[in-house]
Specification:
Two copies of one chain form a homodimer.
Chain A: H1 7-18, H2 23-32, H3 43-55, E1 59-65, E2 73-78, H4 80-95, H5 103-109, H6 116-146, H7 155-179
Antiparallel strand pairs in A: 1-2
Helix pairs in contact in A: 1-4, 6-7
Chain B binds a DNA duplex (30 and 30 nucleotides) through residues 3, 6, 8, 22-24, 27-28, 40, 42-45, 47-49, 52, 67-73.
DNA sequence: TACGGATTATTCCAGCCGGAATATATCGCA
DNA sequence: TGCGATATATTCCGGCTGGAATAATCCGTA
């Protein structure tokens, strides 16, 4: 019926599987659980996402409460349609790879606008930055292992690390081949 | 001054390095050169992008011509500011890795909402689809090699293939571990 | 030569995102 | 007890994307 759920919409629905809550509570939980590593978590976007879910009948307002004179908080609950949408979305997103056009590929495609020397330096800098990210992910993974968390809750970190490591290794090969002039480069700009 | 160039804006500027042209001509060239493999090429977005580049002084209208009674076509040329912006953007995009939050990672993060059996099937289907994409990329690479094109013009395909292969290998390991129950899965929904 | 379909070329609109603005309440501390 | 800083909670607005609408011309063909 509707287009596939946006990441934030999916996350919101997944939280409502646990229990009804209001948007700001979801926002806090997403930050606490470090979902920011996997998607962009912005309060503004979250409110918009929930508004759409409500409009489309995937969640429903179950009441408002008010603490002090703060704005009313609307509590939302999951509907059956929402539960199906979660299942359908996750299924589809796992099953089908889609090219999401990473910016790095765009840059590679235009890299010939730079000189070979410039490119080598930039590739080296990227390589270093990737190593740092990979280390961070390793720390996260070790910590989760230590706390004996079910692997299904953190294997996304292992996935990310694997892919980043592959990019780093590719960069290493390219840098080496650029240095030895094994890889031909067009006349610099 | 302005925020980093969008992929389409970058591509437009890169085309104007060759010679001045009008938007539709850029659009055709982008399709011809298969830039659609690296970014989303939509005519509507391209016109918007060029409008912004013009507003920001990175390109400038150098005249209009008219063939028959068709709408006037405005030809654009690159400015010095545009040339610098191209260089700066490519430099920055090559140098600094940014997490772009791939949808697959989002789905992995919510995969525990499915049963282990469902997940295995979906992972297998994804694995198969990835193999097909990898083959396609290999064909493209072989063809470019055969035509002795400078490698800098197609190494983005090699990059994509490398990353996809890493994802496939990761999936293979996960599928195997799920089958042998080596990887623990939370109580299914 | 009349017609339909593809090509050429651009504009428009609705949707999503995200930074900023807004407004109140609470807490630490001097 | 008064003050600023931070947390709570939501709304707003501007920007980018992309599908659809629009419109004229060209081309093949019957």
């Amino acid at each position: 019926m509707s287009s596939p759920l946006t990441p934030l919409a999916l996350a919101a629905i997944a939280l409502l599987v646990e229990r009804p809550m209001h948007p700001y509570e979801m926002y806090q939980l997403l930050l606490e659980r470090r979902d920011g590593h996997v998607m962009k978590v912005r309060a503004g976007s979250l409110y918009h996402a929930i508004e759409r879910l409500d409009r489309d009948g995937l969640v429903t307002a179950v009441g408002t409460d008010r603490a002090g004179n703060r704005p009313e908080r609307t509590t939302y609950a999951l509907t059956d349609a929402g539960r199906s949408a979660l299942h359908a979305s996750v299924t589809e997103m796992l099953r089908t790879p889609v090219n999401e056009f990473p910016r790095f590929a765009v840059a590679l495609n235009e890299a010939h606008n730079l000189s070979l020397e410039e490119a080598v330096v930039l590739f080296e800098q990227r390589r270093t930055a990737l190593d740092a990210e990979i280390s961070e992910l390793t720390t996260i993974i070790e910590s989760a292992r230590g706390r004996a968390v079910d692997e299904a809750y953190w294997f996304v970190a292992d996935y990310r690390r694997t892919v980043l490591a592959a990019e780093r290794d590719w960069l290493d090969r390219i840098i080496d081949r650029l240095r030895t002039k094994d890889l031909t480069w067009p006349h610099p700009a």
